[in-house]
Design brief:
Serum Albumin, Chain A, Domain 1; single chain; 132 residues; 7 helices
Length: 132
């Protein structure tokens, strides 16, 4: 909570951020490197410290981080605009979603096999000329 507010600048600024931005707060360096080089962007920033993310298998982390960021965005908006506390409802919905992710994605995805380009045919050596 406090670290996210600190990274965003204020509760007001956090409330106006989309969930996708909240998800990568704290990983700006990796995000801009990925954008510059065309590499893979980070899946999570400081929210990686949430126990359900860093204890989960690698292939589930991005999905859980996305779900957590969505709930954090809702919580920040409700807190800023109404001042109400809806944390218990959001936590319950998040835990339900995490269990769903763990059930659906229990096994790691199959690795994509990179197709190797066909090998060129072996060049034939030309026969030497015969001496006259």
């Amino acid at each position: 909570g406090a670290r996210l507010i600190s990274l965003a600048g204020s509760l007001e600024e956090l409330a106006f951020l989309p969930a996708s931005t909240i998800q990568v707060l704290g990983a700006e360096k990796a995000l801009f490197r990925a954008l510059r080089t065309g590499g893979k962007p980070p899946k999570h920033g400081v929210i990686f410290q949430f126990p359900y993310i860093h204890r989960s298998p690698r292939w589930q982390r991005g999905k859980i981080a996305r779900a957590l960021a969505a709930k954090l965005a809702i919580a920040a908006k409700v807190d800023y605009f109404t001042g109400r506390f809806i944390g218990d409802k959001l936590r319950e919905a998040l835990m339900k979603r995490i269990e769903e992710i763990k059930r659906i994605y229990a096994k790691p995805p199959k690795r994509k096999r990179e197709e190797k380009p066909p090998r060129p045919a072996k060049p034939r050596r030309r026969a030497r000329r015969k001496k006259k």
